Every structure is written in structure tokens, then in C-alpha cells.
Amino acid sequence: MKVDGIPTRAIWRDGERVGFIDQTRLPHRVAVVRAGSVERMARAIVDMQVRGAPLIGAAAAYGVALAMQRDASDTGLQAALTLLGATRPTAVNLQWALRRQRTRLLPLLPDERAAVAWTVASQIADEDVATNAAIGQHGLELIRLLETRGTRINLLTHCNAGWLATVDGGTALAPVYAAHDAGLDVHVWVDETRPRNQGAALTAWELGQHGVPHTVIADNAGGHLMQHGEVDAVIVGADRIAANGDVANKIGTYLKALAAGDNEVPFWVAAPVSTFDPSIADGVAGIPIENRDADELRWFAGVDNSGRRRRVRVTPAGSAAHNPAFDVTPARLVSRIITEQGVVEANRNGIAQAILSKAEAARRNA
Ligand code: MRU
């Protein structure tokens, strides 16, 4: 995607370092970090300088490459996998990318590992871009079904599942960009997404950069808008999808799905097959949910009129706060899942079909 007209990825190799856009500084500043160690990469994931399930996976893969430059012994490899694996628990793409690195690197001699680790990380990054382009095209076909000549298509999204949450292209926003680029009149309701404000800060910024009409709304406004016919479909990303089609995504997604179900608004989830976790039979019971520091809730970050960064407290000093970062939307509330392999039902058959079709595609390309 373009930043001020210049094609930019959310993460990239920069010599012996890894460059990425620091998402904690957006939308007020486009700041680039150049990480030179696995520890720095792990910290970037924990602090959400890079975030979003596919991007976390790519960041972890690049983190392994950084680690292999310094210590490519079995101990060094295992230490890197353990460090990166412990950064964030919900997005399964992280474990998926680390498993890919481990499988390729473990059989090699230590001297060979750094070069191969960089190659694997680049492959994961490039595949992510291609995957999201395919998600965009499959999702575009769904959006076209909403088109009634001359009327604007209103989509609602939660959190940020745009290009900033991936290497490039986005998952939930890929069909939106495809529709906009195809000349469809799309407008996006952007949930602010408390407490980290990924919607207000990141989704609004990237839609604006691409010229997609959008309006930021308070997290609690979605139900009201759906009740009054102002939302044609909800489209969100995912951090993990269980074998039964249950979907973990940013906290608050479940409430949007309930409101969509009550108002017969289609609720679509867009995700790569690497977000599927067939080892978890029941998502509501089995997907691990990250609990983050409650200060994210107590304090609000932004800039003042002079552009200076400020943190202000919004709760009474003594109040307890609780900050689960994700929730799980039961499959019965999900209308369709848009993957790079096509659009599938949110049930055991649909999930199995997408996984099988991905495996067949991988075999054909091998
Ligand atoms: O806590 P975050 O910002 O990493 O959460 C991100 C989300 O919940 C996204 O919707 C999800 O990762 C899909 S990203 C394409």
C-alpha cells in the first residue's frame, strides 16, 4: 500500500536488520524502527509496535533470522523460538510461522541457518501479500452481491485488519480496497476499538491514505446503525479460527456479531488459512485469550493541539480494571469465512475444506 504515495510494506528486511512501521506512533507520525536483534523484535510484538495476526507471524519469522545471525546453534534456535513464542498467545499465525522456521532450520548445520532463515521469512512475507490479494478478490465477489445500482455500500469493521495488520494488503480490508479500486461506492464504519484504538488510529489512517470513504464511530454505535439499516455487512479479521468455525478476534467482535445476527446483517470474517487451528475443536472453550495490562484501559494516549504526545488517565486512580484483548465469536453467528482458497462456511466442513484445498495448492507448487 502507499504511504504519502510511496509503496510501503508493514515490515521488510533491511540489510542485517528488520524494518517496520511503528504502529504505536500512528496516525500522528510514520516512524520506522530498524530492529537488529531477536530481543528487539520480541519487544516490538509485545508492545504492539507490530500487531495483527499475519504481521505477528511475519515479525516472528524475521525475528528468528535476526537470532540466527548471532547464534545459530541448536540452543540459540530453541531460545529464539521460546522467546518469540511467548510474546502473544492468541494469534496462531505466530506459532505457525515459528513452526515453519523450526522445520526448515533444525535439520541444517548452524552455518547454513541464517541465510535460510532470511529466505523463509521473506517467503512468509511474500506469500502473505499474495494470500491477501486472493482474499481481496474472493471478498470482492461477496461485496458485489450487496450492490444495488446507485446506492452506497456501507460496511462496518472492528479493530484493524488492514494492510498494517499484515505484510501488505490486509485481510478484512483487502475486499474493501478491491471494491473501491473496482469503482464500487463503498463506505466503511470504523469502530474505534477501545482500549488500544486500532480502528480510530490505524484503520482510519490507512483507509484515508487509500482514499476510501470512512467514518469513525464509538464502539457502542454499531448495533444502533445496524438497527437502522445503515450497515450492509460487517467484515472483520481473525486471530485464530477453531475447527468448528468459532472465531477469535479483537475484544468487542462478538458483540458486533450478536447485533449483526439480530438485524440479519451478514457477518463476514476474512482470514488466511494460516489463522485456522484445527487442533482446537471448540473455539469458545479452547482458544487462549490474551489479558493485557489494565493500564491500557485506565490511560488514553494521543496528541494535543500542538502535536505533543500525551497520556491522560480516564478512570479513578483506585478503580480496578480488566483488559481481555480478544473474544470468541461462535460459528453460528458467522455468515461466511473469506480465505485465499475461496469463501467457506463457518463449520467443520468449511474449515476442513479450506485446509485441504490449501494443502493441495502447496503440493502443486512444491
Ligand atoms: O491486538 P491486535 O491489534 O494485534 O489485534 C488485531 C486483531 O484483532 C485483528 O483483527 C486480527 O489480528 C486480524 S489482522 C489481519
CATH homologous superfamily heading of the largest domain: Translation initiation factor eif-2b, domain 2
Give the beta-strand count.
Answer: 18
The SSE string, one letter per element, is EEEEEHHHHHEHEHEHEEEHEEHHEEEEEH
Segments where pLDDT lies below 50 for 5+ residues?
none
In the CATH hierarchy, the third-tier topology of the largest domain is known as Rossmann fold
Strand content: 15-25%
Compute the separation of the termini in Å: 29 Å
**Helix fraction by DSSP (H/I, runs of at least 4):** 40-55%
Going by CATH, the architecture of the largest domain would be 3-Layer(aba) Sandwich
Chain-averaged pLDDT: 97
How many structural domains can be distinguished in the coordinates?
2
Q: Round the Cα radius of gyration to an integer and report it.
A: 20 Å
Q: Helical element count?
A: 12
Largest sheet: 7 strands, mixed
Strand line-up of the largest beta sheet: 8-7-6-9-12-17-18
CATH class bucket of the largest domain? Alpha Beta
Shape: globular
Structural class: alpha/beta
Ligands in the model, by name, code or SMILES, are: 5-S-methyl-1-O-phosphono-5-thio-D-ribulose
Would you give an account of this structure?
The chain contains twelve helices and 18 strands. By secondary structure, the chain is an alpha/beta fold. It folds into two domains: 126 residues, Up-down Bundle (Four Helix Bundle (Hemerythrin (Met), subunit A)), CATH 1.20.120.420; 232 residues, Translation initiation factor eif-2b, domain 2 (Rossmann fold), CATH 3.40.50.10470. The strands form five sheets. It has a seven-stranded mixed beta sheet, sandwiched between helices. The protein has a four-stranded mixed beta sheet with strand order 13-10-11-16. Helix 1 packs antiparallel against helix 2, helix 2 packs antiparallel against helix 3 and helix 5 crosses helix 6. It is globular and about 60 Å long. The structure holds 5-S-methyl-1-O-phosphono-5-thio-D-ribulose. 5-S-methyl-1-O-phosphono-5-thio-D-ribulose binds next to helix 2 and strand 11.
